[in-house]
Amino acid sequence: MKKNKLALALILSGLCTAGNASAQNERFIIQVDNNKKGVVKALTKKLGGDIKVDGNGFIAAKFTGHDLTSLKGLLNNPHIKLIEEDQKRVPLSLFNDDAGNAMQQQITPYAVYQSQADQVTFDANAGMKVCVIDSGLDSTNPDFIWGNITGDNDSGTGNWFDNGGPHGTHVAGTIGAADNNLGVVGMAPGVAMHIIKVFNESGWGLFIRLSTSC
Description:
Alpha-Beta Plaits; three-stranded antiparallel sheet; 10 strands; elongated; four-stranded antiparallel sheet; 6 helices; Rossmann fold
């Protein structure tokens, strides 16, 4: 069930696509032999790498001044299986919702129809909680039941309750906006949500942070 809810949150977050970065990417994902991860971590630090994520079978690190080619040369080690760039991700474009002015009437987001959520009944007593990994949630928006919402943020993205762009609030609204004759109505009105802000003010977040956020 937990995996299903996480999958739903990721689908509704518009999935995401790789962004074009003008500056050189200095963040890398290094797949390692878990039994020898300590050796790779020590080598990474010795070569000036700053380890950002220590995961199962991999580490993610920043190497200032290095590109992928030079990094492969530096980390020519039998305990390393693969080195790849930690790609920047940006949210995909939003679909149109129902016709109408959400300031004057309640409308239904397009994704509710697209997912066929309007064809099932939401059980408000089911005790579910949805994790929304996106650009945060606008704390001034009256279309949410804020007592049901918690959150956290990735380093460098700002407070989760400060809007980092419209995408996160739109996605959260599609999932759980209240049925209150205002704004939009979500597919599970008033459902408990945990917001994780991974996209910064420039509109991108790193792949490894998105994949390990919940």
